[in-house]
Structure formats: structure tokens, C-alpha cells
Amino acid sequence: MSDDILSEMRRRSELAFPANGMSGRGIVTCAGGTRLFTCAYVLIRILRETLDCDLPIQLWHFGGEEISPVMRTLLLRHGVELVDAASVLEHFPADIRDGWQLKAYAVANSRFAEV
Fold first, then answer.
1. Is the pLDDT of residue 73 over 90?
2. Using only C-alpha atoms, what is the Rg of the chain?
3. What is the pTM of this model?
4. Which of 13, 40, 56, 112 could link 31 by a cystine bridge, Cβ 3.0 to 4.6 Å?
């Protein structure tokens, strides 16, 4: 392999992980907008209240317009960490055109070592 290719591979591998490193275990889910938020909220309530799960939860979304202030309040009440994928993409670029691609990106860029 040429030095340029190796250099680019090294650069990409350095960008693949959050700067603060990964640690611990947690749950990552993606949701934005009313329909997907409803599904995520039911999931979170079942995890917290029915299964008594205290693992940290990250909910990834695209931009502030996908999560309303009411949605934000409901999630924070259950200790959910909101992650705006748009801001993460500025630091760790990826070719994400549709919401379904966010799932793998969120898992790869979450703060958790085990998801």
C-alpha cells in the first residue's frame, strides 16, 4: 500500500472513536419526530419502569427540530442523554443520507464501550 493510503486509513481510524474515549455499558437508540419519538419513549419507559434498567441511555436525533422542548423534558426525566447527530457529524464526518444509517453511526460514536 502507498503511504498516502496508509496515512488516510490512520486518519479515518482516529476519527472513528470519540475523543473522550469509550467506556462502560449503555443503550443507544435513534428517534426523531413524533412517530419515532413515541416508539423510543415507550422503549425507555419499559426499560426504566418495567425492567428496572438503570443503564445509561443515549437517544440520537438529527437537529433540534426533531426533538421538541416537551419531548426533551420527558426524556430528561428518565435520565436520557440526548445526542444531536448533526453536531457530532461536524467532528466525525460520515455519509449519512437517511435516518436508518444513523443507527450504526450512533453505536460506533456513542460514549459506550458496550452497547
1. yes
2. 16
3. 0.78
4. 40
